[in-house]
Design a protein that fits this description.
Distance between the termini: 81 Å
InterPro entries: Homeodomain-like_sf, HTH-type_TetR-like_transc_reg, HTH_TetR, MftR_C
Structural class: mainly alpha
Organism: Amycolatopsis camponoti
Helix content: over 70%
Radius of gyration: 22 Å
Number of domains: 1
Protein name: Transcriptional regulator
GO molecular function: DNA-binding transcription factor activity; transcription cis-regulatory region binding
Order of helices and strands: HHHHHHHHH
Shape: globular
CATH topology: Tetracycline Repressor, domain 2
Number of helices: 9
Number of strands: 0
Keywords: DNA-binding, Transcription, Transcription regulation
């Protein structure tokens, strides 16, 4: 085989490899879209009907897939409901990893948190949610059967944020206090944001709440005056 033939073969292999990667990327995107659709379907139905009145079959039908497809993504309806909470934690960690290395830590975390909350439900983005929707959300997050799933999702997100903070600061996420403390503070701050947002019939925009809460942390949490 001469050099020209080798070059031609390499081009063909490179083209086919690119096609394969594109196909895999498309499959992964479709899988992620299906997962998101199932999770939002689970949330919508739970908010509208109440947790006990929602079946896996209902969630699958709402998302336009079979129950078998549902089982490829989630083991229980609780997992599907809490999946967006889990995804948000991962999204915050991922966005933090992409922030400039020299950016002050709380500025970076604020920007990453805002990016993570861009995963919000389309029906509530940019406007005050309907009171009935808020009431349903309150019942959903207080549902005893979901507390274990919420705890697992929160712990996973906190651990991932700690790892990213450790990367940024040259510390160890498993043994050093700093990354664990920062990640725990982020988790506590997000809990405050959630309580504030759900605690009124006319909640402030999430972005505004996030900026206030994390701004106070960045300032060293001074006493109110």
């Amino acid at each position: 085989m001469n050099n020209l033939q080798i070059m031609q073969l390499c081009r063909i292999c490179k083209f086919r490899y690119g096609e394969l990667m594109d196909a895999r990327g498309l499959r992964e995107r479709k899988k992620q879209e299906t997962r998101i659709a199932l999770s939002w379907a689970a949330i919508r139905l739970t908010v509208e009907r109440g947790y006990a009145q929602v079946r896996i079959e209902d969630i699958a039908a709402e998302a336009g897939v079979s129950t078998r497809t549902f089982s490829n993504y989630f083991g229980t309806k609780g997992e599907a409901i809490v999946a967006r909470h889990h995804d948000r934690g991962r999204a915050i960690a991922s966005a933090l990893r992409e922030r400039p290395a020299g950016e002050p830590i709380w500025e970076a975390i604020t920007a990453a948190t805002l990016a993570g909350f861009a995963l919000g439900e389309p029906v509530t983005e940019g406007r005050v949610p309907d009171p009935s929707w808020l009431a349903g959300i309150r019942l959903m997050v207080a549902e005893p059967a979901l507390q274990g799933e919420f705890h697992k999702a929160g712990a996973a997100g906190e651990a991932e944020i700690a790892r990213v903070v450790a990367e940024r600061t040259g510390t160890d996420a498993e043994t050093d206090v700093y990354p664990q403390l920062v990640a725990g503070t982020v988790a506590a701050a997000l809990a405050v944001v959630t309580r504030q947002w759900l605690g009124t019939e006319s909640p402030r925009p999430l972005e505004e709440l996030i900026r206030e809460v994390f701004g106070r942390l960045a300032a060293g949490l001074p006493e109110p005056r």
